[in-house]
Amino acid sequence: MLDGVWERVVGQERAVGVLRRAAGQPVHSYLLVGPSGSGVEDAARCFAASLLAPQGGDGEPERSESGADRGVLRTVDLVLRGVHPDVVEFEPEGVSILAAQVVEIIREASRAPVEAERKVLIVLDCDRMNETAANKLLKTLEEPPERTHIVLVTGSPDDLLPTIRSRCQRIELEPVSDEVAREALVHAGASEPDAELAARLAGGHLARARRLVGHLAPLRDAFAGVPARIDGSGGTAHVVGADLDAAVDAAVASVEERHAGELKAFEEDLERLGYAGRDAQRLRRRLEERHKRESRRARMDALEEGVTAIETVYRDALAAPAPRLNTDREPVAVPAWAAAEALDACRDARRALAMNEKGMLHLQRLLLVLPPAGGGPLRAR
């Protein structure tokens, strides 16, 4: 395990080494590349914490003789919780990052730090900037205010304008191995079987593996059980759909519970640290806006994770006797051709989910065309 501020970024020793060195002598703009769930978001936050905290010679926050300095620990804690006043995160407010949002990024870059010597802006999913927005950001990327650093984060760097890429120092993260993911999950308290299963299913994405042993575990279990329950009847599809709807609601509720805890801790921080009224208002608004975005995404993310769980079961049926992804259940008894068509149906459902928000409608349609357990024809799609 990595020590210090970087311990959350597991299995990325090369990238972490580069970032730790960069924190000692930073340039203005960085491009962190890695698929969602690879740890790239955590890497951006850890890098921001290292930029704001006093630096030791190895890019780690300095430690006093009596242990980690309380001020440094507080800085790291606030950054990783997303509530430090001098680390501002941006992500698409809709399908794309539009010019109006880039104007806000530029405005924020020009504001002086509230309590640190530096300010860090993190732009998640930056590849979703449209061309007008990207061109508007170019000058700020090339010449940001002296104490401001911009960290762009993407899983699709080729979708960025070459002029954006050329203005940033690029650092890439790789998918982690199943073994590394399993060890990280066990270290965090997961059981060996749960960690093994989540690591297999996550496909090298540690953040996803953490969710699969956390609040998404019941949802994944409910959806992975679907292929064995389907019998070709509309009545069964209706009952199964109601169960899945409840599982999605529970996953969303867990996100909202986390938001409530974050807001409570934030209010306690404001009172204890005595932020000025305007700064406190801006920080509160920033946190509330992030919570709104996460809440809007939570249901769609849960539905997509659920469809993925169904896909893995049919993948196991199609790939038998190859090793299973779902080691906690036997492959569903359907012919190979039926499993292949079920995978096509899941792909269509995923595309439909991405196009509009009528998630349960698309899910119900999927349940009606999946093959009955034990074999049998699929209904026409």
Report the CATH C-level class of the largest domain.
Alpha Beta
Estimate the strand proportion.
5-15%
CATH superfamily of the largest domain: P-loop containing nucleotide triphosphate hydrolases
Q: And the CATH topology of the largest domain? A: Rossmann fold
- The dominant shape is elongated
E-strand count: 7
Structural class: alpha/beta
Count of separate structural domains: 2
User: What radius of gyration results from the CA coordinates?
Assistant: 23 Å
Describe the structure.
With 381 residues, the protein is of the alpha/beta class. The protein has helices at residues 13-24, 40-52, 70-80, 99-110, 131-142, 162-165, 178-187, 192-202, 206-212, 217-224, 226-229, 234-273, 277-319, 336-355, 359-369, and strands at 29-33, 63-64, 67-68, 87-90, 119-123, 148-154, 169-172. Strand 2 (63-64) and strand 3 form a beta hairpin. Helix 7 (178-187) packs across helix 8 (192-202) and helix 8 packs across helix 9. The longest helix has 43 residues, at 277-319. The chain starts with 12 loop residues before the first helix and ends in a 12-residue tail after the last helix.
Q: Which secondary structure elements does this structure contain, and how are they paired or packed?
A:
Layout: H1 13-24, E1 29-33, H2 40-52, E2 63-64, E3 67-68, H3 70-80, E4 87-90, H4 99-110, E5 119-123, H5 131-142, E6 148-154, H6 162-165, E7 169-172, H7 178-187, H8 192-202, H9 206-212, H10 217-224, H11 226-229, H12 234-273, H13 277-319, H14 336-355, H15 359-369
Parallel strand pairs: 1-6, 1-7, 4-5, 5-6
Antiparallel strand pairs: 2-3
Helix pairs in contact: 1-2, 2-3, 4-5, 7-8, 8-9, 10-12, 10-13, 12-13, 12-15, 13-14, 14-15
